[in-house]
Amino acid sequence: MEKIVIRGGKPLNGSVVISGMKNAALGIIFGCLLVKDKITLEDLPMISDVKLSLEILRRMGAEVAENADGSVVIDCTNAVGGISPCDLVKKMRASYYLLGAELGRFGRAKVGRSGGCDFGTRPIDQHIKGFEALGGVVTLSDDYIRIEAENGIRGSELFFDVITVGGTINMLLAAVLAEGTTVIENAAKEPHIVDVANFLNTCGAVITGAGTDTIKIKGVKELHGCTYAIVPDMIEAGTYMIAAAATRGCLRIENVIPKHLESITAKLVEMGVSVDEFDDAIVVSAPDPLRHINLKTLPYPGYPTDMQPQICALLSISEGTSHLIEGVIENRFRYVEELRRLGASIEVNGKTATINGVSGLHGARVRAVDLRAGAAMVIAGLASDGVTEIEDIHHIERGYNDIVGKLKKVGADIEKVEIQTL
Ligand code: EPZ
Questions:
Q1: Which of 50, 154, 300, 375 to pair with 394, CA 20 to 30 A apart?
Q2: Any idea what the Cα angle at residue 18 is, between residues 14 and 22, rounded to 5°?
Q3: Alpha helix (H) ranges present in 287-390?
């Protein structure tokens, strides 16, 4: 077991390169199951959720090989449905993409219950509504979710009652090989939805409207192999933007799509942070002090819920009182207790956190309670005076490619240390 140890108070200066987007990569990796051909994926982030997804496909009979340049070749020609390993599937939520992919390829699916960050109940009723609209009969047991489509998958119209990233991606996977056309209304519009749709279209699918709230999928007979590069990770980029601001440093963040960061940039500029945009890079720096703001997380293009803990850490050391409303996830403030241990002054009442900015934070021992909460602990540790130790860092490694190495390169005093067990 390892922990991250940070000696805070050092401004970050220099440049970091952003990796491929976790939440696009996971949908695309499981989407390879739909293709009986070789697919080469470039810019895959080498994070534990990606490695886990590749191992799940291997255990299902896919051939997965890593090239010297870091690209990965996946061939699911001989993959078998219904045998995904439950012990691996339950380690992350994105495993539920196996449902759409198996249903799309085999006309049936049998997948163990998925896991992931603990945000309270994380229902999949909309996914089920979509599978049933396509002709699937869904059976839930304690251990498995099964779907049978005896008459095959037929295109349909579907209106999502809730804007759901996972539900939208699962529908893309289930419908691309369907008989006929599927229309999804009230679809999620995140850049990772667009990337999964672009990947499937590169394999020969006919998907239009991704990135809007209405997506049309015209079923095709089969898909073919391709080479595809994953879109840069907007949440990783946003995390480094906030780390630069929190340490009053100056970071050039490379391999980004500024358009994807617009809502994050807008809120940081409102706080007094300066953000200069270039074609595929941004430069972030911040004066002292930063101003308080009010913010509500929303589906894209609103401020992302996956950037909520990170900006909370920044607001903790900004002047005045800020109000942060979590508008997407049921319960995403579990990390506040850990921020308080670093000296933050935050009150949580239901979906609203009231943050009273303090002049500075002090080092402490904290835990990463989930992936983005862990990123918030890193940001707070970098900005704190003294030493911060972060445990349960496996959460952070699910979604950040070499965060310690990237931060070290821009001046952070940070290292991973083995926890001495008695
Ligand atoms: C995806 O989770 C991301 N995970 C999450 O990122 C992200 O927080 C979330 O989208 C929102 O952007 C992956 O992409 C692997 P949702 P997902 O379905 O698909 C409710 C990270 O940090 N809902 O868009 O599970 C649900 O309870 C992770 O990278 C239903 O009610 O999110 C939630 O309140 C954490 N019924 C809201 O919709 C459903 O059938 C949004 O959930 C599905 C969802």
A1: 300
A2: 150
A3: 308-316, 336-341, 371-383
Phi first, then psi: give them for residue 365, nearest 5 degrees: -95, 125
Secondary structure of residue 153 in the 3-state scheme = coil
Residue nearest to atom 6 of ligand 1 (CA): 306
Render pLDDT for 280-293 as a digit per residue (tens, 0 to 9). Answer: 999 999 988 999 99
CA distance 100 to 5: 40
Residue 163: band (very low, low, confident or very high) from pLDDT cuts 50, 70, 90: very high
The pTM of this model reads 0.97
Q: Which residues face 226 on adjacent strands?
A: 39
What the block records as the tokens of 305 is 């819920």
From the CA of 22, how far away is ligand 1's center (Å)?
13
Q: Would residue 203 show up in a list of annotated catalytic residues for this protein?
A: no
Give the count of alpha carbons within 13 A of 153, CB side only: 31
Q: Whose CA is nearest to atom 42 of ligand 1?
A: 164
Give the number of the atom of ligand 1 that is nearest the alpha carbon of residue 121.
27
State in Å: Cα 278 to ligand 1 middle.
Answer: 30
Q: What is the pLDDT of residue 121?
A: 74
Whose alpha carbon is nearest atom 30 of ligand 1?
A: 123
Using DSSP, state whether 228 is helix, strand or coil: strand
> Mind listing the pLDDT tens digit for each residue in 123-136?
899 999 999 999 99
Q: Which atom of ligand 1 is nearest to the CA of 304?
A: 12
Question: CA 244, CA 226: separation in Å to the nearest integer?
Answer: 37
C-alpha dihedral sign at 255, 259, 260, 261:
positive
CA 155/CA 400 separation, integer angstroms: 37
The binding-site residues of ligand 1, defined as CB within 6 angstroms of any ligand atom, are: 22-23, 26, 93-94, 117, 122-127, 162, 164-167, 188, 305-306, 328-330, 371-372, 399
User: CA-to-CA distance for 161 and 176, rounded, in angstroms?
Assistant: 22
Question: Is the peptide bond prior to 301 cis by the omega test (within 30 degrees of 0)?
Answer: yes
pLDDT band at 370 (very low <50, low <70, confident <90, very high): very high
- Catalytic hit among 76, 117, 203, 312: 117
Examine the pLDDT at 210 and tell me if it is beyond 80: yes
8 Å CB contact between 252 and 281: yes
